[in-house]
Amino acid sequence: MTDRDATRSSRRAILIGAGALGLAGLAVPARAEPDPPRHPRTVIADDLIVKGPVPWVDVRAYGAIGDGTTDDTDAIRSAVAALPPSGGTLLWSAGSYSVSGSIVFDGFTDLTVRGAGGVAITQVQELTKTFEFRSCTGLSVRDLTFVGCGTEHSNEPTATSFNGVAAIFLFDVTGVLIEHCTVRNHAGGGLRWSGALESAWFVENTFVGIGVPSIEPLANNSDFAIGGFAATRNVDITITGNDISASCFGIGVSGGDRVVISGNRIHDIPGQHGIYLSATSRVTVTDNVITRTYGLGIKNQVAESYPGDVSEVDVSHNLLVENQTAIVIATTSGVAQSRHLTNVSIVGNIIRGARESGIYHTAGVDSRIADNHIDDTGNYGIYLRFVSGDITDNSIRRTGWTGLWAQVDELTTIRGNVFVDNAIAPRTQPGDLGRTEWSHHVYLGTPAEPRTPEPVAVLTDNVHSAPSGEPDTLTALVRISSPVTTVWSDNINLTAAPLRVDGTIRHSDTRYSPQASIGAETRGDSVVSGRGHREFHAAASPETLPASSLYAVGDICWRTDPAADGPLAWICITAGQPGTWRALS
């Protein structure tokens, strides 16, 4: 036996010995072996570990019955009042406690509130918090179940206000751990906070909201299972291992810094979003499973009211299934273009069945979008606006609209991505952009005022295929809009769709590139249209090349000066006279 085991055994012996504690007002009858205790005030303390000489109080010692019928509110308040400001442990022995008002904990330091055995606390008063912690430091809430009335928490006709009526409410709390608790049927949410929240851990809890039909799509009437949007400071918050369902929102943090949201299971959210962050920096959202949300899966937005930029956003290795759009990292429409999200990483996520897009990202500087697997989206696979950075090694399959739609405004690398069966159901209504922006594997353009006047996009080592058959809606494999300058090399096109170029297209290495720098290395019938140019290598004039090459009758070709020991090269542009070429100075 270890010293710790011995300590626990000795404490257990002290706690369950009749009268051994010597606490005023606490009756602990002797326990006859081997019969189990039957007195309603017997304290079962097997799981209670008291570190140091701190007081502890059992709520039943102050008159709480825990029979599921008696109103225990006053007795529980008396037990709380018996604790000194320096804290201690408020113990709830097994039972079902009914309360008709809030239990307020104000100004405590080093306070533990925990159950010992199966403990349920049922709130019978409408529009009322169950636990309210104010100005506490060093708080632990563990092993309790909270049951609410399930009624609307707002008196407004539309029930849309965020008023914080939840099972557990925190105001100006520092150093809090809430773990192994269950919250059911609380219309105002499970765990809410406002004011300042610092150094918080919310671990392995279960939250079940009021669900449908009480929560309608886009409603706010259940607020957050876990969240604080009316907060002045949210720092060092960890939310991990929780199971959340049937709430209007899953998890929400506003203005957070150093936030970790990991390993949560968020499912069947009928109102809005799974994870909703506002202007939260240095945040990691990883290893969560988010399924069947009416709104977005994961969102971090910068609104016009937020004064600065947001940085270091990591969304990685999450599984998102059947969301509106799976991941949104963006500024709102009213935010000036000079405002940015910097160092955004969206990596290794699996996205399936998004009703709209897989990834939606705007205003990103030095963003990294890599190793994501996106299947079966209604709209775009990846949508980027005012973005620069690296888009690498993603798999984008079966998208209704364009696989990758991007407005780039600084150097952006698009490398090693696999595009399969994209643009299978684009919008084609009269007056829309169905045949220019939504009907491709890749669309590249620039915003009206890019940060770089002529931004460069590097496309290399990407693979394009359509094993299910090339739809008539695929109007171009890749469309490059002016004024993007595109560096193109070593891409494999297994379709017959053309490349449409309105900007400038260059080759990264005229000496070592394959024969055709754009179009299909493996499909000679791919064509190039537009005002861009293309390069290929040959030792003779383009007129003598085989018909299967990318040179086509009608091209005008310029002969280039080869690098040392390199082959001759031609740059060809369409819509010229057949078989003509001229030297390029």
Automatic annotation (TrEMBL):
PANTHER family for this protein: F-BOX ONLY PROTEIN, F-BOX ONLY PROTEIN 10
Carbohydrate-binding/sugar hydrolysis domain segment(s): 238-385
Official protein name in the record: Pectate lyase superfamily protein
Top-level taxon of the source organism: Bacteria
A GO MF label: lyase activity
InterPro entries to which the protein is assigned, alphabetical: Beta_helix (IPR039448), Carb-bd_sugar_hydrolysis-dom (IPR006633), PbH1 (IPR006626), Pectin_lyas_fold (IPR012334), Pectin_lyase_fold/virulence (IPR011050), SCF-Subunits/Alg-Epimerases (IPR051550), TAT_signal (IPR006311)
Organism of derivation: Occultella aeris
Gene3D superfamilies for the chain: Single-stranded right-handed beta-helix, Pectin lyase-like (2.160.20.10)
UniProt keyword annotations, A-Z: Lyase, Repeat
Pfam families: Beta_helix (PF13229)
